Amino acid sequence: KAGQMRLDSFFKPQ
Amino acid sequence: ARLPRSAVLKKILDSVKDLVKETNWDCNEEGMSMQALDTGRIVLVEVMLREAAFESYACEVPMTLGIDMEPFGKVLRCAGGDEKVTIKASRNDQDHIELVFENEEKERMSAFELKLMDIDGEHMAVPDAEWGAEISMPSSEFKKIVMDLAEIGSDLTIAVSKLGVTFTAQGNNCKGSMVLQPSTAVDKKSEQVAISFTEPLEMTFAAPYMKMITKAAALSSTVTLSLDEACPICVRYEMEDNAGHIKYYLAPKED
């Protein structure tokens, strides 16, 4: 079953 | 800030309240905007209400309003959908905002105060992306597809190819897919399905989150899905008359 990724893998805090 | 109808605020609240409990609204001369992550850090929601959305709008100094969605919702429920809303924030007293609802027909006016919160807001930098695929379609159709397939299984796969766009869900006992092809015979732009892509792609997302994202269908008759291999999907609803938009970024599931 596929694992849920988090947005932290793509976006960084400004 | 004076909105001609409170319905816009009610719909925005409905579109974000399942994801975000409290959020900072940034007000400046361009309008009011917010960005927030859900606690699971899986969905990012951005709302922009431009000056054009308002009947009158004035912001002399940029301000940040920390709003708790629950009491905000309680206050908004007191407004009729077609009542005017005036939001007042004072730079001298940043402890609360005032909301005034006006029903012109009934000559009724109601006023509320909402305490502001000091929210340690985190702002994420969303890089400009070159999307591999873009799909625009009626928001009601997207909502129905997501709601239906979310009943079948918790994973929603979106595949874009020459065949069109295919939405698939697989559960323990059943599997279902729906294919949409670009519409050629529809005159109204809001009823059209348009698909563009560079390479075929296929991505999987959590259906329960996608369901929350379809709540914003109330704000716009069309929706645009932007996808790229191994990236979050961007689901964008543009409001009419350049009033603003609501955008969601949902992180994918990986194999």
Summarize this structure briefly.
The complex is a heterodimer of chains A (14) and B (255). Chain A is mainly β and 14 residues long.
Give an account of the 3D structure.
The complex is a heterodimer of chains A (14) and B (255). Chain A is 0% helix and 29% strand. Chain A is built from no helices and two strands. Chain A is rod-shaped, with a radius of gyration of 10 Å. The mean pLDDT of chain A is 89. Chain B is an alpha+beta fold and 255 residues long. Chain B has four helices and 19 strands. Chain B has helices spanning 7-16, 69-76, 139-152, 207-213; strands at residues 2-3, 22-28, 31-37, 43-50, 63-68, 84-89, 96-103, 108-115, 124-125, 133-138, 155-161, 164-170, 175-180, 194-197, 201-206, 222-227, 233-238, 244-250, 253-254. In chain B, strands 5-2-3-4-18-17-16-10-14 form a nine-stranded antiparallel beta sheet. A four-stranded antiparallel beta sheet of chain B has the order 1-6-7-8, covered by helices on one side. A four-stranded antiparallel beta sheet of chain B has the order 13-12-11-15. In chain B, a hairpin with a 4-residue loop joins strand 12 (164-170) and strand 13. In chain B, helix 3 (139-152) packs antiparallel against helix 4 (207-213). The mean pLDDT of chain B is 95. Classes of the chains: A mainly beta (14), B alpha+beta (255). Strand 1 of chain A pairs antiparallel with strand 19 of chain B, so a sheet runs across the interface.
Order of SSEs of chain A: EE
* Residue runs with pLDDT of under 50 for 5 or more positions of chain A: none
Our Rg estimate of chain B from Cα atoms comes to 20 Å
User: In order across it, which strands form the biggest sheet of chain B?
Assistant: 5-2-3-4-18-17-16-10-14
* Rg on CA atoms of chain A, Å: 10 Å
SSE order of chain B, as H and E? EHEEEEHEEEEEHEEEEEHEEEE
